[in-house]
Design brief:
The protein has 173 residues and is α+β, with helices and mostly antiparallel strands. It is built from 4 helices and 6 strands. It has a 3-stranded antiparallel beta sheet with strand order 1-3-2, covered by helices on one side. β5 (78-83) and β6 form a beta hairpin. The radius of gyration is 19 Å and the shape is elongated. The chain crosses the membrane at residues 115-136, 142-161. Pfam families: DUF2812 (PF11193).
Length: 173
């Protein structure tokens, strides 16, 4: 019988490194990352392994995924799973990091920030439109409230993602 376990994510914009460390800890206990799940990860029971995990943010077309992952595999990283422009890789401890300098790290976070920004802007617009419609047409109070409840977490996530791309005093990292 196949055993699975769920591990909740604390959110990539807030604790990407912590999530990757927790996945490594789980692998050492015999729970390997299998796939992304709603707000977290699906783990599968296996032999305990010492692994490190890393994430990359990159929109890759399905037909280009193999070429994309081969680049990481050549550096010792194994593709584990992908979802919505997020790709997690694993490797043996001691493998050179995927991102080893400020320039490539900045590009990584800019790619992640862009996706969140688009959703946050769209939801913000819809929230403001629903508030306007509420006052102009008498639209139910529940519609703007519902949009606000959905929009707020995306705005906070965008702010956190944006802060990762900025260094001290608002300059790019």
């Amino acid at each position: 019988m196949k055993q699975n376990k769920y591990m909740m994510s604390e959110g990539f914009a807030f604790s990407e490194e912590k999530d990757m460390k927790r996945l490594s800890d789980m692998a050492s206990k015999g729970w390997l990352l299998d796939s992304f799940a709603f707000m977290g990860y699906k783990l599968k029971k296996a032999e305990p392994r010492k692994l490190i995990y890393s994430i990359d943010y990159h929109d890759v077309e399905k037909e280009s995924l193999e070429e994309y992952t081969e680049m990481f595999e050549a550096a010792g990283w194994e593709h584990v799973c992908s979802s919505h422009g997020m790709h997690i890789f694993s490797a043996e401890p001691g493998t050179s990091p995927i991102y080893s300098d400020q320039s490539t790290m900045r590009e990584k976070y800019k790619r992640s920030e862009k996706a969140v920004r688009n959703v946050a802007c769209t939801l913000s617009f819809l929230t403001l439109l629903s508030i306007t419609l509420h006052y102009v047409t008498g639209l139910s109070n529940w519609v703007p409230l519902a949009f606000l409840i959905v929009t707020f977490p995306f705005l906070v996530t965008y702010a956190a993602a944006k802060s990762r791309t900025l260094g001290k005093w608002g300059k790019s990292v």
